[in-house]
Design brief:
The radius of gyration is 25 Å and the shape is globular. It is 39% helix and 17% strand. It folds into three domains: 4-172, Rossmann fold (3-Layer(aba) Sandwich), CATH 3.40.50.970; 189-352, Rossmann fold, CATH 3.40.50; 357-550, Rossmann fold (3-Layer(aba) Sandwich), CATH 3.40.50.970. The chain is of the alpha/beta class and 555 residues long. Helix 3 (52-64) packs parallel to helix 4, helix 13 (356-369) packs across helix 14 (378-388) and helix 14 runs parallel beside helix 21. The strands form four sheets. A six-stranded parallel β-sheet has the order 3-2-4-5-7-6, sandwiched between helices. The protein has a six-stranded parallel β-sheet with strand order 11-10-9-12-13-14. The structure holds thiamine diphosphate (TPP) and magnesium ion (MG). Residues 85, 400-402, 424-427, 450-453, 478, 480-484 line the site of thiamine diphosphate. Magnesium ion is lined by residues 450-452, 478, 480-482.
Length: 555
């Protein structure tokens, strides 16, 4: 005879058994069964966000900064609707996340009560699997399957609708156990040989490095591969993670999203080895094709949707990047012999003048030139912030125009050290930093955000204060949507910036932050900025702090 258990308690027990430690949520009546059961699960921390997009962004930050499964719970149809922008982001980054919503009782939902709509079709386009539980006995199978699907590469969010009758019913059910699929697969011996032969045939190879190097923990291996070949390694066009060890000699920084520049940058090469990355994902349309005509592609990764998606791959391998590189390097060395070693040495020497470290020096010099500009230059802010950060700092980046040089200045030293806006929907940074801090309670987390971006999710500050998280928030306050103004001007030659300023009335960032229970300071003087930033990083703190930096908004 199995012990009887309520659906609500079984749900929380199942999440915990799948490794979930925090439930990010926003409650309504349909979530009350879960809220009722929480007191019996004190080892699951409930983190309340004051709007559903914040809830999902917090969970997203947690998973992205840890690689672990996260869970978040939102309120029926309007709550799921509020969460869609954040779910879109989680889909983009393949965040392993279980998103749930309470739903009206089965049968009652059919009468279309207040707040009701079908949830599964709403969530479906953005998740790997969407399902509603229709029998309590199915709950364990569904949660176990959801956790497995979310965590199996290509990882991604899943959605479960939880009707009230399922949560409140009681039954003798077996909670079963967790399944995790080990996908650290390497290619066949034949393929490794063929890959090595093909790469050695390349006269001018180049690496393109993406997010799977973080997910598969392959940063060291990727750096070694670049050094064995002596070839440049570029980060992909959206630098939303620490996709390469910045200070290694072959790192060139990230490609940008200017089609012409990318084409020019890549045209010297004949073979692009794509390591767990999308290929030349762009933002705005251009008549220029970013891929040079004669560049051939060798592509490796587990996210097969991206392989050969827009550009055919001459060799395509669905395998773990770390395991593949580990198997490939000794074969390359054996086959390449001394000739390869010599070529690699020359290649590394030739990169010394143009690699990330060299470019960093010139970016520092350029930033210093702006050290006395007022309003404060974004470049001086970025430089001063990077100088202030301790070695183990984690940076959450949604700094937009003010932080344009951030990834040129901040070195990625480990795979969790930087997380940036990936999918383009703004408002991710403030709440994501909360999840990042929960994932790394012992590391200092700093979030840099544009003022416009921050206003999409400003109530996340309350959660940071409520949870006493020592996050430093740096707001780049230029009083408007500068990037949109820049684009109106450059695309349309129009400098009538209707709907892009917030100066009447201006936003009172210090007042906003203080109203949500946190310390805040406004900085207008470029010479005091470095000290304020340094102070923000020193000592232990019991709660967040906000630094409102008044920066240049010139278009
Ligand atoms: C969810 C969402 N809504 C609107 C946009 C369009 N958008 C892109 S950037 C931007 C303005 C960003 O302003 P801010 O964060 O202040 O940065 P700044 O350009 O001033 O540096 C807007 C509105 C978007 N990307 N995502
Ligand atoms: Mg702005």
């Amino acid at each position: 005879m199995l012990n009887t258990i309520t659906g609500r308690s079984a749900f929380l027990a199942l999440l915990k058994d799948e490794g979930v430690t925090h439930l990010f949520g926003n409650p309504g009546t349909t979530e009350l069964p879960i809220m009722h059961a929480l007191k019996d699960h004190p080892d699951l921390t409930y983190v309340m966000g004051m709007q559903e997009s914040i809830v999902v962004y917090m969970a997203d930050g947690f998973s992205r900064a840890s690689g672990r499964l996260s869970a978040c719970n939102v309120h029926v149809a309007p709550g799921l609707g509020n969460a869609m922008g954040a779910l879109f982001s989680a889909k983009f980054t393949g965040t392993p996340m279980i998103l749930t919503a309470g739903q009206q009782e089965q049968g009652h939902g059919l009468t279309e009560p207040l707040l009701y709509d079908s949830l599964v079709p709403m969530a479906q386009p953005l998740v790997k699997w969407a399902v509603e539980v229709t029998r309590l006995e199915d709950l364990p199978r569904i949660v176990r399957r959801a956790a497995k699907i979310a965590t199996t590469p290509p990882t991604g969010p899943v959605f479960i609708s939880l009707p009230g009758d399922i949560l409140n019913n009681e039954a003798g059910i077996d909670l079963a156990s967790s399944t995790r699929i080990d996908t650290r697969v390497r290619p066949s011996d034949e393929m490794i040989e063929a890959l090595a032969d093909r790469i050695l045939r390349a006269e001018r190879p180049v690496l393109l490095c993406g997010d799977e190097l973080v997910k598969s923990d392959a940063l060291e291996e990727a750096a070694q591969l670049s050094e064995v070949l002596g070839c440049p390694a570029f980060q992909s066009t959206i630098p939303f993670g620490a996709h390469f060890l910045s200070e290694r000699p072959c790192f060139m920084g990230s490609l940008n999203r200017d089609q012409k520049q990318v084409r020019d940058t890549l045209s010297p090469y004949d073979t692009m080895i794509v390591l767990g990355s999308d290929v030349l994902r762009m933002s705005v349309w251009s008549p220029t094709e970013p891929m040079p005509d004669n560049l051939r592609i060798v592509q490796i990764g587990l996210v097969d949707w991206e392989i050969g998606k827009n550009y055919p791959a001459e060799m395509a391998v669905k395998a773990d990047v770390r395991e593949t590189i580990k198997a490939l390097i000794p074969v390359l060395q054996r086959k390449g012999g001394r000739a390869l070693a010599e070529r690699a040495q020359q290649g590394i020497a030739a990169l010394a003048k143009s690699n990330w470290s060299a470019k960093r020096e010139s970016a520092i010099a350029a930033s210093k030139k702006a050290s006395s500009a007022k309003p404060i230059s974004g470049d001086w802010l970025t430089h001063s912030l990077v100088q202030a950060l301790p070695k183990d700092a984690i940076l959450v980046n949604e700094g937009l125009t003010a932080a344009r040089f951030l990834t040129n200045l901040f070195p990625y030293r480990d795979r969790w050290s930087m997380h940036g806006n990936a999918a383009g929907g703004i408002g991710w940074g403030l709440p994501a930093a909360i999840g990042v801090q929960f994932a790394h309670p012992d590391r200092p987390v700093t979030c840099i955000s544009g003022d416009g971006s921050a206003m999409y999710s400003v109530q996340a500050l309350w959660t940071a204060a409520n949870q006493k998280l020592p996050i430093t928030y740096v707001i780049c306050n230029n009083g408007g949507y500068r990037i949109i103004k820049q684009r109106l001007k450059s695309f349309h030659g129009n400098d009538h910036y209707i709907g892009m300023d917030f100066v009447d009335p201006p936003l009172d960032w210090v007042g906003l932050a203080k109203s949500m229970g946190m310390n805040a300071v406004r900085v207008t003087e470029p010479d005091t900025l470095p000290d304020v930033l340094k102070q923000s990083q020193s000592g232990s703190r019991n709660g967040p702090t906000l630094i409102d930096v008044v920066v240049d908004g010139t278009v």
